[in-house]
Design a protein that fits this description.
4-stranded antiparallel beta sheet; binds ligand EPS; 5-stranded antiparallel beta sheet
Length: 433
């Protein structure tokens, strides 16, 4: 039940059936946000419906935000060698229609709409109205689920006879909305000197290890490559691998790395599971469509090494104010110890499986007849790893902006800025002991 203060208590209705459950799930959600705790990103929309929408709540008032900030990120997500015909149709810019006035955020939810230009070709199939003729061809019903896709499990779980009811929402088109929300998070972080970037380190069999040291601007170097890879020779081999997979009617996955530089020591916490930043970052990255693995820093390779070859030795360096006057001689921890940022670059790698829409489809079952059949042959990308890396940047930026707001708080940017300054000043003068 809600008290006058808007808090929830259960004593009065211990066995009140569905009402009780509703209250409990509300409380559960509020106290167990593993990924975002201060920000809330809601997305809505189907791949071939009229539009995709993002609503980002929790951004302080007074953040300078322009339509170009969002458009720039959406354009980056649409690029990358290996995309299919759909990207020639869409021209994502995003239209901010709430939460911003005269170039600054107002403190309320920020709403961004990304129209689907392809909708004009799908008006019957995606109509909100009940169809006049339920068996009409133009409704583009799907009963041939793709192995690896949400098609079949979604049909069974949601009791839908038409896989289109699942695949339209399961589509990675939804990531456009995440990138729009992430653009706002990036804008916030950027003002505090934090940059979130990405590059591709694997496509199929072609591997290009992360260069050491990284270029000054990972973004500029990666965006100059058709596959967003920092190694020119590997880039060409990746392009050739994509061409070969396209010829074979197949698809390819890969690995991208996301990096955040400029973070201070002290975001996240070791104290409880829900505030550990490592889990929140892994959760956010794993929530992207088609992701099958996340590692932070040395990741899985650290399991095969000895402690002395893994842990980053510590030394004093008074010039490193954001790191509290310390430095690590290496960064195998990927910028996180105990779920807390160390002040070293935050580095995570994410593995994407090959896309499950194939021009040479795999064996499946026709769910209408129950007979063996080939899966549906949908128009598709061959490889979307370069685009996924941009989505990874957005998700990392959202988690870091969220942890930033959790640590520093404030309804306005002025309040947030003075809290950040006070903390950094304290770090610079801190002596422990
Ligand atoms: C997707 C299938 C393809 C991709 C789409 C994601 O779309 P379509 O079925 O219309 O050809 O192009 O990605 C986007 C539309 C996008 O904006 O990234 C899927 O099934 O996930």
């Amino acid at each position: 039940m809600f008290s006058d203060e808007g808090t929830v208590s259960f004593e009065a209705r211990p066995s009140a059936g569905p009402f009780f459950c509703l209250q409990r799930s509300f409380l559960y959600q509020e106290s167990n946000h593993f990924v975002l705790r201060r920000l809330k990103l809601t997305t809505a929309g189907e791949s071939h419906g009229p539009a995709i929408v993002a609503i980002l709540d929790g951004v302080p008032a007074g953040l300078e935000l322009s339509p170009q900030d969002v458009a720039r990120e959406l354009i980056r997500r649409q690029g990358g060698y290996g995309r299919g015909g759909r990207m020639k149709i869409e021209k994502d810019l995003g239209e901010i229609f709430a939460g911003v006035r005269l170039g600054e955020t107002l403190g309320g939810p920020i709403a961004i709409r990304i129209p689907n230009r392809d909708f004009k070709n799908w008006q019957d199939a995606m109509s909100v109205e009940a169809p006049a003729a339920p068996d009409d061809e133009s409704l583009r019903r799907v009963t041939l689920p793709r192995p690896g896709h949400a098609d079949l499990v979604g049909m069974l779980k949601y009791r839908r006879a038409d896989a289109r009811d699942i695949l339209e929402r399961a589509s990675a088109r939804e990531t456009a909305a995440r990138v729009a929300g992430g653009a706002v998070a990036k804008r916030l972080l950027h003002g505090f000197g934090v940059r979130v970037e990405s590059h591709v380190v694997r496509i199929g069999q072609v591997h290009a290890p992360s260069p050491d040291p990284l270029p000054d601007s990972v973004q500029a170097s990666a965006d100059a490559s058709p596959v967003r890879c920092l190694d020119e020779a590997a880039s060409s081999r990746m392009v050739a691998e994509i061409d070969e997979a396209r010829r074979a009617g197949d698809s390819l996955g890969g690995v991208f790395e996301v990096i955040a530089r400029g973070l201070p020591v002290g975001l996240g916490s070791h104290v409880t599971a829900d505030v550990r930043l490592s889990g929140r970052i892994a959760g956010a990255l794993m929530s992207i469509h088609a992701m099958k693995g996340v590692e932070i820093g040395m990741g899985f390779a650290s399991a095969a090494a000895r402690g002395s070859g893994v842990h980053d030795e510590i030394e004093r360096d008074a010039s490193r104010r954001r790191a509290g006057g310390y430095r690590r001689r290496s960064n195998n921890a990927g910028g996180l110890e105990g779920g807390i940022t160390t002040g070293e670059p935050l580095v995570a790698r994410v593995a994407m499986k090959p896309l499950s829409s194939l021009r040479q489809p795999l064996d499946s079952v026709d769910t209408k007849s129950g007979e063996p059949a080939k899966a549906i042959r949908e128009r598709s990308d061959v490889c979307a790893v370069p685009a996924a890396a941009i989505v990874g940047e957005a998700m990392l930026a959202l988690v870091l902006a969220d942890a930033w707001l959790e640590k520093f708080g404030g309804d306005s940017m002025q309040e947030l800025e003075s809290n950040v300054e006070a903390y950094l000043a304290g770090l610079a003068t801190a002596t422990l002991g």
